[in-house]
Amino acid sequence: MLEDWQKRFPNCEPVAHWLRVAFPDRWVRFHSLPESKRYPEDAREYETLLNRHNCILGELTGTERRIVLLTAGYSEDLVAVRGPRFDAVDPNATLWRSVVTHEFDGDSSPPGYWHVFASVWDWRPKTFDPIVRSVADCTLANVMIVAPDCRWLLHPYDGGMDVITESPTSRDRLKAAHKEWLSVYDSGL
User: What digits encode the pLDDT tens for the residues 105-161?
Assistant: First the structure.
């Protein structure tokens, strides 16, 4: 599981906001709601948000069903922590790796560690709906869903999802298929 991380994401640790910067030619952001509305307000908007995430995950997984859920916690030392909300939605996760964040964020940052936990799931539509909805509601954060061979990665955030594909060509195909979900800004954010 995740043995190909360094091959697929060379010189980049599993921290979502670093990935989109490190791999801009493979990155695309999709917004969860029409007109880039950030937060859902009713059942219809939650349904749209979840349908978009399930659609993109379905296209990324293809016929494969085994995928990996990554969740993270932060501490000022090497004691691996993860919030109790993650324990409730992903009780089978185990520590995969710890990342020294202050070495990447600059010398002026205080010492800190990003602890990344992983668990294997059999994905079907709606599998991650409770997690995606919690991310949209800002009650969970720091979640990534990744192929076991690290071919692609999806990072839900409150407002949408960042996707890192296996190639610029696959990114362009995904963008073309879902143009109406893209940002109107040149930055793609």
Answer: 555 566 788 899 999 999 999 999 999 999 999 999 999 999 999 999 999 999 999
Q: What is the pLDDT of residues 64-73, one digit of tens each?
A: 899 999 999 8
Residues 6 or more apart whose Cβ sits within 8 Å of residue 66:
120, 121, 122, 123, 148
Q: Which domain holds residue 65?
A: 5-177
The answer to whether position 123 is within a domain reads: yes
Q: Report the alpha-carbon distance of residue 165 to residue 17 in Å, rounded.
A: 15
Q: Is residue 184 domain-resident?
A: no
Q: Tell me which residue has tokens 């205080």.
A: 110
Contact between 133 and 126 under an 8 Å Cβ cutoff? The reply is: no
Domains contained in the chain, number: 1
Q: Is 66 part of a structural domain of the chain?
A: yes
pTM of the model: 0.92
